[in-house]
Structures are given as C-alpha cells and as structure tokens.
Amino acid sequence: MRNAKQITLLILIVVAVIFLVWLVRHEFPSLVNQSPAGHEAPQAHVGPADIYPDPARTPGAVNPDITQENIRETICNPRWSTKSIRPEASYTNRLKVRQINEYGYADSKLRDYEEDHFIPLELGGNPTNPKNLWPEPFETSIADGGAHAKDRVENYLHAEVCSGSLTLEQAQREIADDWYRVYSTSVPH
C-alpha cells in the first residue's frame, strides 16, 4: 500500500512539473526566449533562407581596428575608403570558389555571386576573415533579396552610424541579425 502511494505521489509531481513547464512556455514566452547572458534571443528571419549566409559558416566577424571611438577617422571620414582594407580579388575569388562548393550551391558560376562581407567593411566588418565572407547570390527566391538589396542596407546603416543615430555595434548587430528586416522596414525603396 505504501508503494502505491509513493508511485501516485511521484506521478502527480511529474504531471505538475510538466504543467508548470507548459505554463511558463505559453504564458511567459519572453522568459524562454532569452540567451544565457539575459539578452533576447534573435527573432526568426523575415526573408527566405536563401538570402542569408549559413550562420555556422558565416556568422560575421568585426575588424578590431575599427571601433566606435575611431569612426570619425575611419568609416565616417570622407577621405577613408574601403579600398584601403579590401582584400585582393585573387583572395576573394579563391574563397568564393571554395565556399560555393561548401555551401552546396547548384549554380557554380562565379559571376552569379558577390563574395560579400556579411558585416560590411563600411560598418567595421573584418576584411579577410572567412567567417565574414560568403558567396551571396545576385538572384534569389525573392526579387529584392539579392546582393544589390543588401548593398542598400549597408549604405543606409553606414549613414545612420555616421549621423549618430546608431552606434557601430547596433548597426553591426542589425545587419547580422536580419539585414532583410532592415531593408523591408527602414530602407526607402
């Protein structure tokens, strides 16, 4: 009899725990969607998957030489140019060939891709780190999802940083979290 009471109690405890987990997940989703550091976890992307790099291969990387403290001398200085840090085409073309293969793209024509800096140079992106470079298709499953649309986001965010509306880190996070969200909500088109 004592064993039956213990089993019944154990079952009740398990059911109560399951119910509490369900309740927290459904009634307080903001508590569940937090990263370990306490920051909100990134939301799902707005656009289709083919307009974003694989986050495992290309999470983005920043240039340690460009900081919020020196943007007036670097990216926001009209005399500064990304040409001063842009890698040679021979480097990016070799990387593009390798990454098109790694990404498993059916189209292997180099001309159909821009070897793009995920965090762009004009927002303090790392110029040579492969974790910041990816073969971005010019044509995607949506008309405004290719490299040319992302270029418009880069220019928009660069202007926001240089005007003081956004910090460098905020702009880097915006483009890395979901560049297409910025395109669809903030970039005039």
Fold and architecture overview:
With 189 residues, the chain is mainly alpha-helical. It has 2 domains: 31 residues; 137 residues, no CATH class. The N and C termini lie far apart (74 Å). It has 5 helices and 2 strands. The protein is elongated and about 85 Å long. Helix content is 42%, strand content 5%. It has a two-stranded antiparallel sheet.
What distinguishing features does this structure have?
189 residues, 2 strands, 2 domains, mainly alpha
What topology does this entry show?
Blueprint: H1 2-27, H2 29-32, H3 89-103, E1 113-117, E2 133-137, H4 147-163, H5 168-185
Antiparallel strand pairs: 1-2
Helix pairs in contact: 4-5
Proportion of helical residues: 40-55%
Overall outline:
elongated
Task: Give the count of structural domains.
Answer: 2
Seen as an oligomer or otherwise, the chain set is single chain
Count of DSSP E strands? 2
Distance N to C terminus: 74 Å
Write the H/E string, N to C: HHHEEHH
Number of helices: 5
Structural class: mainly alpha
Low-confidence stretches: 28-41
In spatial order, strands of the major sheet run 1-2
Q: What is the arithmetic mean of pLDDT?
A: 87
Please state roughly what percent of the residues sit in beta strands, choosing from under 5%, 5-15%, 15-25%, 25-35%, 35-45% or over 45%. Answer: 5-15%
Summarize the entry for a quick read.
The chain is mainly alpha-helical. It has five helices and two strands; from the N terminus they run αααββαα.
